[in-house]
Amino acid sequence: MTMPFPTALAAAQKADAVQEFMFGAPHLLWLLLLLIPLLLLRRRPGTTSGVVYPCVPFIAKLLRKPSTLAGRIGAVCLVLGAVSLLLALAHPQWRNEYQEQKVSGIDIMMVCDLSGSMASQDMIFKVEDNRGRTANRRVDRLTAAKYVMKEFIGGRPNDRIGLVAFAGKAKLCCPLTLDHGIVGYIIDQFYLATQDLFSGQVRPGYIQEDGTAIGTAIATAATRLNERTETKSKIIILVTDGASNMGSITPIEAAKQAAKLGIKIFTIAIGRDERISQYTADVDTFDEKSLKEIAHSTGGRYYRASSGTKLQKAFKIIDNLEKTDAKRRTIVSYEELFMYPLGAATLLLLLGTALCFARPRPAP
Predict the structure, then answer these.
(1) What is the pTM of this model?
(2) Could you give the percent of the chain with pLDDT greater than 70?
(3) 9, 118, 304, 355: which has the fewest Cβ within 10 Å?
(4) What is the spatial distance between Cα 20 and Cα 18, in angstroms, rounded to a whole number?
């Protein structure tokens, strides 16, 4: 089902509308040139009187129409009235043009692991310095996840995005929203538990209970997605570096329930696998088999992100797979303005005619 474009975005588009003044029949403006001779001849003296008195030449001046203020104003009004009438005939109007976009968006829940193992500094990004030289920069897993998630969100302006964080338990941090600024702000607030070097006291992280409750996190995100029924597509992007060891529901069972609701899950295993061999592994080794099954059972995909570059690539692939359907059309409207010069022409012509008739007659 096609969603109506968000009100705030529609208002912004109308604010950016292009407005210009134009004439519908500009060729009629050439008729204004015909009024120039009238302006030039308006003050020319008329023919002399037909009766000449040689002995009394001063009487000839009395037979001419006297020049009065009413006569001069009347002529000006008639000319201005003709100009206004031609402007009305030229069809003046405002042309308004703006882009209307209808978007069938996607609801996306970002699910981020905040367990203690996300502090491992094994994520490498390739960066360029001021001289254009490429260098490797090493950051911890949480920093890498926060950076790439915000980068992904910035490229999805028409989708509703929500946020779930989890460690020993899951927490809904942000419901589905088009306000991506607040989503990015909350992601910036994610932090892990730290230990004071002198006192040995542990400062709790954003999620106080440590552990990895993947199943609970999936269930929390799916519940929020299921609240919206008019959305075309619903997906969960799960970023984790461990195996589930907490929660009241297993990741596989949560994924099956999400699949029944039509929700796809994309799983991303973040971090380097520090296994010495295929038979030994440290405690941070993720459950790759379960992550693959979660993705496969819901129609999603599994990605392995052992570096920052690979993490960016995984999100880019998801971005390309889940495209928002947007339709754009140009709407042009016209606001007619001819009634204003037409009204002015009517008043000026009536006034000019009245003033011309008000001129005194020639003296006898």
Answers:
(1) 0.62
(2) 76
(3) 9
(4) 7
